[in-house]
Sequence to fold (469 residues):
Amino acid sequence: MPAVSKVCCIGAGYVGGPTCAVIALKCPHVQVTIVDLNQDRIDAWNSPDYKLPIYEPGLKDVVRQARGRNLFFSTNIDQAIQDADLIFVSVNTPTKKSGVGAGFAADLKYVESATRRIAKVATSNKIVVEKSTVPCRTAESMRTILEANSRPNCRFDILSNPEFLAEGTAISDLFNPDRVLIGSLQTPDGIAASNALRDIYANWVPTDRVLTVGLWSSELSKLAANAMLAQRISSINALSAICEATGANIDEVAHAIGYDSRIGPKFLRASVGFGGSCFQKDILNLVYLSRSLHLPEVADYWEQVVIMNEYQKRRFTKTVVDTLFNTITGKHIAVLGFAFKADTGDTRESPAITLVKDFLQEKALVNIYDPQVEREQIWADLAEAMPSVPSSDIQKQVHITSSALECCRNAEAVVIATEWREFREIDWELVYAGMNKPAFVFDGRLLVDAQKLRGIGFQVTVIGRGERL
Ligand SMILES: NC(=O)c1ccc[n+]([C@@H]2O[C@H](COP(=O)([O-])OP(=O)(O)OC[C@H]3O[C@@H](n4cnc5c(N)ncnc54)[C@H](O)[C@@H]3O)[C@@H](O)[C@H]2O)c1
Fold:
């Protein structure tokens, strides 16, 4: 199989954009074209002042170096498909909202329409790579669609190459991945296609970090990795509830158990709950897969990870209400952070959305500040979370501010919902001076120095700590 010289990526989102921008940077001899149906998104990727559609530390530098050289962003999908030797399919695979499997199964309509488009317009052989996270055996459906709709003499090899980057650290994850996983059919053609993709990564990833496996193992490994990661968060959050009830400290517990080399220290930070576009969706997908395979005990086991996450969010809201003398009606709550984690502007499944929704239902007045999330996004998320409440009513109760200080002014309570570094460095004395008293801080991210804040005069409640002084 000849070496790949032209790559196309269908889907210019949080995965397709950074992943293929890094491929372009690291492989100057390969022409990379990232395409999308969304003209606004492509315009933003092409914007002269690099106002890119997603925020990711280091991303601008990568795009600045490669764009116009061997990296292109376009809505001309057909042309990019025709030109490419290798096509990444990196479209969204959200949870289905209706029909069979609603609430659990992955909605594969975008994967299917991208696949049909490839079949329709391709005039030469292609390697088609599943980059999207998909249920086990999706590659088989893709192959069936491609073979049934393609022109004669057009051959397609399908690979699975799930993406393990984490938002917020996407560029360093891509530069230095723990591993790259490539799944293929174990036929001579499948292995040749897998080698062609491996050769692209070999431009910067050590060969022992590129794992080649069977297609179905590759697809399942991505769901399994996210399920195990989310399970760790729900496990530590479940323990945080016990800490609060007993007077133990979740930081100390995490530290102690993390010293066990079989457990390890990472991903043991208690919080108000996990968010993001992937963890919940991928676990629900695994639950659905397990139920479809008549494995109800397996399905229930994984579903509990999501149930625990919901419980953690509700538990946090209840703590806020209980602590503020059992009512927050008419009180001002300052919510610091709206993104699902620090260093991203992504709000998909952000715990902050649930918290704000709960506070609004308790008839509180909510101020919100996030350093990266656009105002329109916050309004859109709240409207989606409360479809039966008119936007004008939401806007009467919510005020979006341009700084943390402004957010906290005249508030009764500050709720830390995202672990942005700048919240640790706020001038808390100034915040305290501007707040109504008693002034409360609820730290949902184990971010602040609680003792210091108590010294200033705050009443501080931290997730996973029994003591409330
Ligand atoms: N976001 C993450 O951190 C992450 C990490 C690993 C894997 N994933 C997986 O990667 C996939 C993509 O995720 P994302 O966060 O980049 O999604 P996204 O919603 O940010 O981007 C997907 C893009 O695909 C485009 N698209 C959809 N159908 C198309 C079509 N037929 N033709 C052209 N463009 C089309 C959309 O317009 C959108 O811009 C998902 O399956 C996700 O589960 C995401």
About this structure: The CA atoms of residues 149 and 341 lie 42 Å apart.
